[in-house]
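Our consortium's second objective concerns turning raw sequence data into structural hypotheses that experimental partners can test. To show how far this objective has progressed, the report includes one record in full. It was chosen at random from the queue rather than selected for favorable results. The single chain below, 219 residues long, was entered without modification.
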Amino acid sequence: MASDYRRTRIKMCGMTRPEDLIKACQLGVDAVGLVFYPPSPRSLSLALAEPLAALTSALTRRVALMVNPDAGYVREVVAATQADMLQFHGDESADFCQQFGKPYIKALRVKNAAEVVGLITQHRAADLILLDAYVPGIPGGTGQTFDWSLVPDTLAAKVMLAGGLNETNVPVAIERIRPYAVDVSGGIETAPGIKSADKMALFVQAVMAADRLVSEISS
């Protein structure tokens, strides 16, 4: 294996069932996402999220996803889930995102390259920038891809790529963008919030294969 091999991190989002979260951890994914946004079919109450989050393995990060929450609710979510990272999908300011003392992911819906650069500039403190497809009125989880050429090359190392990824197209995304991480939800499901163990495994295999190929090309 080439010495400059770099592994693309994997986040599986929208966990609602214990068996799915446990499977993700067994597959060695880097993070699992719990959604706290009631309009989403994958949304969790705090009562459901607390025992679910407790099943996360020690080597897998818990990510709590919210959309324009109030600060008090964010703290309740962190207390219930022991979240390692926060993910914000709304119009939250950088100051708002930073106040909780947790690493955070800022999600941006891609319209055009200039807007992406401008929004990223506002969130320099974000640990990762999640880029997702822009669909009017829907803050994420649309299952739609976007034009990956809009991702500036200079930003790829800080990008978590989302939007319609599955085991078929994620190798292409990794080859083109070389993102730090990929985020999948609908692409590993049989229905919203219901993950497929087979699809989950295939996705991880596809990412690993793409990483090996990129490493060989780069060496």
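The partners drew two points from this record. Residues 9-218 form a domain with the TIM Barrel fold (CATH 3.20.20.70). The CA atoms of residues 47 and 205 lie 33 Å apart. Both points have been shared with the crystallography group to help prioritize constructs.
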